[in-house]
Amino acid sequence: MGSLTEENYIKSVYALSQATGEVYVSELAKKLDVKLPSVNSMMKRMATKKLVAYAPYKGIKLTEKGKKEALAIIRKHRLAELFLVKVMGLGWEEVHDIAEQLEHVNSSRFYERIDELLNNPKFDPHGEPIPDSNGKIHTKKRTSLIDLAEGLTATITAVTEDEKSFLDHLNAKGLQIGDVVIIKKRELFDGSITLQHKSKKEILLTHQVAERIWVEV
Amino acid sequence: MGSLTEENYIKSVYALSQATGEVYVSELAKKLDVKLPSVNSMMKRMATKKLVAYAPYKGIKLTEKGKKEALAIIRKHRLAELFLVKVMGLGWEEVHDIAEQLEHVNSSRFYERIDELLNNPKFDPHGEPIPDSNGKIHTKKRTSLIDLAEGLTATITAVTEDEKSFLDHLNAKGLQIGDVVIIKKRELFDGSITLQHKSKKEILLTHQVAERIWVEV
DNA sequence: ATAATATGTTAGATGCATCTAATATTTTAA
DNA sequence: TTAAAATATTAGATGCATCTAACATATTAT
């Protein structure tokens, strides 16, 4: 097991590499709020441990071993967030910092049990997929209604909450899985969204509701 | 906030001082599985931070500040253990190592919520009192039936479980709060205990049941 | 009361993770 | 295409937490 610091480096390299494939020392330094030489010296150490491939003045890439570790940490982070919300009843906005700490807990039993209690969830509440215990991601990120720009057309594929009250709410609005909608207006002020429905009706959804509706464009 | 290492030193000093009041470098070194000079140099550092009072060749004592930190950690440890058992359904024997990690989580919200979910518990499942959020311990350790030697007489004062099935079990055995019992025999093999009841009947309790019954001698 | 034993301290080194200051390389722009 | 700007590396230092080897103080036992 690597140190806490090492785990944070791995996680950041992974996150930054998602966009570009390669990560630069300066990006990492910024993300981790340390100076360039700290990153440089850490990369040397991590390279000898075969966690990253790293050549001077070139970009940083995770090795397979590094990627596996990154995914294990991400799995723990996302399971922890979901657990804090669903089981412990904490607010979505307050769980990130706690999950940042819980992701470093070293106990397969602990996370096995969380996974069980949550019924082997596939996505966290942001639609991000949760890697399985072998570090495999089986599905792509889901897109929520709140991720779409005005004017786009999308099909509703799923919803996060399976609580009756939430489904009742959607029914009352006349929305169902499979419906095709157009994003008419996104309100910057409160994040609410107006949809154009196939039935020609306009439907207003609050941010809170819209973020729980998954779509395909 | 101190480092993880520092927190572990504080906790160990507190635990060792419970018996004797003073702690010796060699005891600490043994408990933490480090060499004497490591303890010595850590004590110097912790003394400058006013966490311990420490004079060369004399014993180590926690300051008020140190005690407060120790109790905060112990509170978190005991709440975590109880949470892992009661809420997450883990076995009592497997939670200690996880709690050793969770006790270092820095989030008052997290522990506030655990405390709520457990209904502000006063004791952990071993009868150890849980300090309150100000680091005050209001009650002494409780004694369980399994802590008593053969021949002792004791009064039953409380039980851990308030599940109906457990209380039914005690009823069926003819035991109630307030009953006076004598420890007749402790079976080393399986930890079961035979009681002499006031009704003259002999009652056999398994270890599992006996450890949940609190007594006063 | 002194020698032997146990316990504790100092000195000096190591690895991790960080920093500042100085230097080198790469990219970009004049 | 060379100078300026941006980015990266090396050198050398610091604090934490640990170690071994050498030395110091207490305790105990003869």
What does this protein structure show overall?
The first copy, chain A, is of the alpha+beta class. Chain A folds into 3 domains: 4-62, Arc Repressor Mutant, subunit A (Orthogonal Bundle); 74-138, Arc Repressor Mutant, subunit A, CATH 1.10.10.10; 144-216, Roll (SH3 type barrels), CATH 2.30.30. Chain A is built from 8 helices and 8 strands. In chain A, the strands form 2 sheets. In chain A, strands 3-8-4-5-6-7 form a 6-stranded antiparallel sheet. Chain A has a two-stranded antiparallel sheet with strand order 1-2. In chain A, a hairpin with a 4-residue loop joins strand 6 and strand 7. In chain A, helix 1 packs across helix 2, helix 1 (4-20) crosses helix 4 (64-86) and helix 4 packs across helix 6 (108-117). The N and C termini of chain A lie far apart (41 Å). The mean pLDDT of chain A is 89. Chain A binds a DNA duplex (30 and 30 nucleotides) through residues 3, 5-6, 24-26, 34-42, 45, 56-57.
Cross-sheet strand order for the largest sheet of chain A: 3-8-4-5-6-7
The gross shape of chain A turns out to be globular
SS field, number of helical segments of chain A: 8
Return the string of H and E elements of chain A. HHHEEHHHEEHEEEHE
CATH topology of the largest domain in chain A: SH3 type barrels
Distance between the termini of chain A: 41 Å
Largest beta-sheet details of chain A = 6 strands, antiparallel
* CATH architecture level-2 label of the largest domain in chain A: Roll
What oligomeric state is this?
A: homodimer
Stretches of chain A where pLDDT is under 50 for at least 5 consecutive residues are none
What's the Cα radius of gyration of chain A? Answer: 20 Å
Please provide the count of β strands of chain A: 8
Mean pLDDT of chain A: 89
Q: Give the CATH level 1 class of the largest domain in chain A.
A: Mainly Beta
Helix content range of the residues of chain A, please?
Answer: 40-55%
Largest interface: A-B, 18 and 18 residues
* Secondary-structure class of chain A: alpha+beta
* Estimated share of beta-strand residues of chain A: 15-25%
Q: What is the fourth-level CATH superfamily of the largest domain in chain A?
A: Ferrous iron transport protein A (FeoA)
